[in-house]
């Protein structure tokens, strides 16, 4: 059987992958959970060995590893690249895919990160994760241990997957921001209530002391 895009046997498997991706991104709004599940799904469903999901931070200047095929999930949120740094950073800066078949250490865009064991992998493809409104969400990378001639069809399929998850990640990020704001508002409200209670007690004490002093002063008349 002839392999087609990303090592999938036929278009039916390709459609199954896309359906699974959609199911995965619609199961929750936790940003890290979405990124992690996507990395695992892509690796399990394709002829690749590892997937990394790098997400742009709020400043728009850095990429943070948020999802990765095990065992690299253990270093998620510990790896950060500046936009323009490394292959993923280059993809984020130029919003264009990159394919490296071999000799990635000779590519000036490549940055070796010891925790990600780049020496164990030969070929890679990296695509930007961009929403339909043109907002950059992050970068999706897949790597293979064996030399792999990634085709234009591979890049298109991976870009399609990136497009599907872009909206979900954007929504998850928005949900997280709203949750953070609600939590901050709740903490602020609790602090204000405590301050008001302290003021009430202080005022009550002052009134009590004032009345007491008045009674004492009257007793001398």
Count helical runs. 4
Uncertain stretches of 5 or more adjacent residues? none
Strand content: 15-25%
DSSP, total strands: 6
What is the succession of H and E elements?
A: HHEEEHEEEH
Gap from first CA to last CA: 112 Å
Strand order of the largest sheet: 3-2-1-6-5-4
Give the structural class: alpha+beta
Binned, the helix content reads: 40-55%
Topology, element by element:
Layout: H1 11-25, H2 31-45, E1 50-56, E2 62-68, E3 80-82, H3 86-94, E4 98-100, E5 123-130, E6 136-144, H4 152-218
Antiparallel strand pairs: 1-2, 1-6, 2-3, 4-5, 5-6
Helix pairs in contact: 1-2, 1-4, 2-4
Concise structural overview:
This protein is an alpha+beta fold and 221 residues long.
Keywords for this structure?
six-stranded antiparallel sheet, 17% strand, 6 strands, alpha+beta, 221 residues
What does this entry look like structurally?
There is one protein chain. With 221 residues, the chain is α+β, with helices and mostly antiparallel strands. The chain has 4 helices and 6 strands; from the N terminus they run H-H-E-E-E-H-E-E-E-H. Strands 3-2-1-6-5-4 form a 6-stranded antiparallel β-sheet. Helix 1 runs antiparallel to helix 2 and helix 1 runs parallel beside helix 4. The chain is elongated and about 95 Å long. It starts with 10 loop residues before the first helix and ends with a helix. The model has no long low-confidence stretch (mean pLDDT 85).
């Amino acid at each position: 059987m002839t392999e087609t895009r990303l090592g999938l046997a036929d278009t039916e498997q390709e459609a199954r992958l896309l359906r699974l991706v959609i199911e995965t991104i619609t199961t929750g709004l936790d940003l890290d959970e979405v990124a992690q599940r996507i990395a695992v799904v892509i690796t399990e469903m394709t002829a690749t060995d590892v997937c990394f999901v790098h997400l742009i931070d709020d400043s728009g200047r850095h990429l943070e590893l948020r999802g990765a095929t095990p065992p690299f999930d253990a270093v998620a949120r510990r790896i950060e690249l500046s936009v323009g740094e490394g292959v993923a950073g280059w993809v984020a800066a130029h919003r264009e895919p990159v394919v490296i078949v071999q000799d990635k250490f000779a590519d000036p865009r490549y940055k070796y990160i010891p925790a990600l064991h780049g020496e164990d992998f030969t070929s890679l493809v990296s695509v930007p994760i961009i929403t339909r409104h043109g907002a950059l969400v992050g970068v999706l990378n897949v790597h293979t241990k064996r030399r792999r001639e990634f085709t234009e069809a591979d890049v298109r399929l991976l870009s399609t997957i990136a497009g599907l998850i872009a909206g979900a990640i954007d929504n998850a990020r928005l949900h997280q921001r709203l949750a953070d704001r609600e939590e901050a508002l709740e903490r602020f409200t609790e602090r204000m209530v405590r301050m008001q209670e302290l003021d009430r007690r202080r005022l009550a004490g002052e009134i009590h002391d004032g009345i007491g002093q008045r009674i004492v002063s009257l007793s001398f008349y």
